[in-house]
């Protein structure tokens, strides 16, 4: 393909509103659908600067810019409508982080790609409320932070204190939070406030390699490293009082705990194993992608089904992992305040994944279509009365990365709870919260309680 100048590349990107841009067919070879991304003024400059730097260095070194990755996903077999990027989009492995793409399950050519899920399968966030206030916590904040460190193992290769045998691991991979509930690490109502009720039913532990299980066995109830955290947070402002009241987080100064973690070494190994299998499947089935990091297999192939079943196991592991850390956080708070988790009202507000692929039904061109939706660095977002959100949130809806009530055709939103967007030149951090407030003001589709923006497909 001939080398293009930045201006020639930029000509393929069309602004259609103050926050939406379309990537035209032809931006990269073999595009089957266009791309679309949503950014405000500050993030637009970062995205285009990244593209300009890529053009300047040519094909030498570095990740592909996010807009190129977005377009390469638009070239995958079976993709429907468009390849979508949400406002925190940045370069990742294969798919950009913040990329959402859906594939038609009825199309025999449609594929599943581990790059569209990520190595940390079901990396997600759980918010736990308390009835404590900042005034209660301020005098003991150092001791409370130390207590969390003492209870929840952290760091690369950290090992858990939740007793887990090989048989326990097999059960957890299959049962997800049902295992946590059975073993006493979870409250019954926790499941009601968890995506998929904390269990993907297509999980098959026999599809998870022995090496993956070996890596996961000692890590149950551990945080890991990188951008994972267990954080004590304080409500600063309430944007939607009725929704906040339903969720029990309606008071400025109220203390909450947010846990951000995933499937640890087990999920990483599941992804690694699948990529090896899929490279062979691509050669066999004649599947060609623009980027080898987009290794994939047809959804109905043996390799595609093996991955989806193993991925479901890793997702279940991640929900058990966050449930185990919730148990440990409840113990830490109870000891510090000489109380019980019940008396401290330490209920789960919501638990949501931002690295997952799931079979869902959506309206596409006026027809209900079964799709395999890849969400990488993005979460579900459902309107009021949607059947997949908890009963007590039915009147408000759940933009699960944020808590909003806006409709979206692929029902997706940014992973607002953990992202930081870094400037390409000076690495200055921009908070996602300020982005989402600006975007919400500009976008009539969006209504925010915490942080986040919804995406219309």
What does this structure look like?
It contains 13 helices and 19 strands. The chain has 457 residues and is an alpha+beta fold. Helix 5 packs across helix 12 and helix 9 runs antiparallel to helix 11. The protein is globular.
Supply the key terms.
single chain, alpha+beta, globular, 7-stranded mixed sheet, 457 residues
Query: What count of helical segments does DSSP give?
Result: 13
Structural class: alpha+beta
Main pleated-sheet profile = 7 strands, mixed
Strand content: 15-25%
Mean pLDDT: 87
* Cα Rg: 21 Å
- The level of helicity is 25-40%
Question: Strand arrangement, largest sheet?
Answer: 1-2-3-4-5-13-12
Unreliable spans are: 400-409, 416-457
* Alpha-carbon distance between the two ends: 30 Å
Short description:
With 457 residues, the chain is of the alpha+beta class.
Topology, please?
Elements: H1 6-10, E1 13-15, E2 20-23, E3 35-38, H2 41-57, H3 66-73, E4 83-90, E5 97-104, E6 111-112, E7 124-133, H4 134-137, H5 141-151, H6 166-175, H7 177-183, H8 188-192, H9 210-216, E8 229-234, H10 241-247, E9 254-261, H11 264-285, E10 297-298, H12 302-336, E11 348-353, E12 355-364, E13 367-376, E14 378-382, E15 398-399, E16 412-414, E17 420-422, E18 429-431, H13 432-442, E19 454-455
Parallel strand pairs: 3-4
Antiparallel strand pairs: 1-2, 2-3, 4-5, 5-13, 6-10, 7-9, 7-11, 8-9, 12-13, 14-15, 14-16, 16-19, 17-18
Helix pairs in contact: 5-12, 6-7, 6-12, 9-11, 11-12
